[in-house]
Amino acid sequence: MSSKKKVLIIQNIHEAGINLLKDNPSYEFEIFNEINDEVKNKITDCDAISIRTAKLPNEIIRTAKNLKVISRHGVGYDNVGLEATKDKGITLAITATANAVAVAEHVMFMLLNISKRKNMYDETVKSGKFIERNNLPKTIELWGKKILIAGFGRIGRALIKRCLGFEMKVYVYDPYVEQNIINSLGGEKINNLNETIKDMDAVSLHLPLTSETNNLINYDLLKTLKKNCIIINAARGGIINEEDLNKALNEDLIFGAGLDVFETEPPENNNPLLKNEKVFLSPHTAAFTEECMIRMGKETTQNIIDFFEKKLEKSKIVTL
Question: What is the reported pTM?
């Protein structure tokens, strides 16, 4: 009987991460594109699972007899059945250090595209309407604008550096981060999200999806915002009510929005935001830079190795 740890890699990761297991004689692994019947059978006696965005529900986790650690390729974990994970004493790890830079850059990419109406400019030139440039809708600068970063983990802390580079005024909402930490990084801590958000020119969401944050950004809140406000969600779908957002955009209540995540992924074809010219969309790819994929792949499998070698950092373990 093999004494090697059995690892199931559900949805492929960068080969740099695969190689960490391949080069370690203590592990054997198999790669699957989805959770199918074969995977369900193998889960019953595997020791570790690497998973990206596929759903790993409670009922499947409960069938695992030897499973000790689930390593999430990313920082969110709403696709993992937390009740069974907790009940069975399984450790849930995340790639806590890998994606901050990529996501922070993606937020700036969206802010710039929306504020400068990149698609409009590009189409104006390519369609031969260069001479009509003086009649185009207004664009806005980021300089001197107030941005609220909601959620101040590693991504929020990477983002604040980039916002300050554009000489924006940064406000931070995170009940779990002390004021002196926020101040030391150049931001101002705020305690009342609903009140402060009314004065913001931009909002970037970096919160987990919970019962408290679900539909946090809804029509009642959107109608209180400044008309030049831009909202970016590169965290989790469901924090913004998409129907309400579409209504607010159509009523010119805000300047624009950028979404990398959606309530349903992929979004339904009849989702009105897909045709709304005031929203800039990307397919949940904020972290999909080549450099980030390497870091995430390596950290995903290294978390598994570190767990069994009793070296897994506490900051990478989800408290259940």
Answer: 0.87
Output the CA–CA distances (angstroms, integers) from residue 164 to 256, 287, 318, in the order listed.
21, 21, 30
Single-letter code of the amino acid located at 14: H
- Residue 286 within a domain: no
Domain span at residue 150?
100-281
* Catalytic pick among 106, 236, 263, 295: 236
Residue 54 within any structural domain of the chain: yes
- Measured CA to CA, the distance from residue 148 to residue 133 in angstroms comes to 32
In this predicted model, what pLDDT tens digit does every residue of 33-85 receive, in sequence order?
999 999 999 999 999 999 998 999 999 999 999 999 999 998 889 899 999 99
Dihedral class, residue 185 (left if φ above 0, else alpha if ψ from -120 to 50, else beta): alpha
167 is catalytic: no
Is residue 265 part of the annotated active site? The answer reads yes
Say whether 7 sits in a helix, a strand or coil: strand
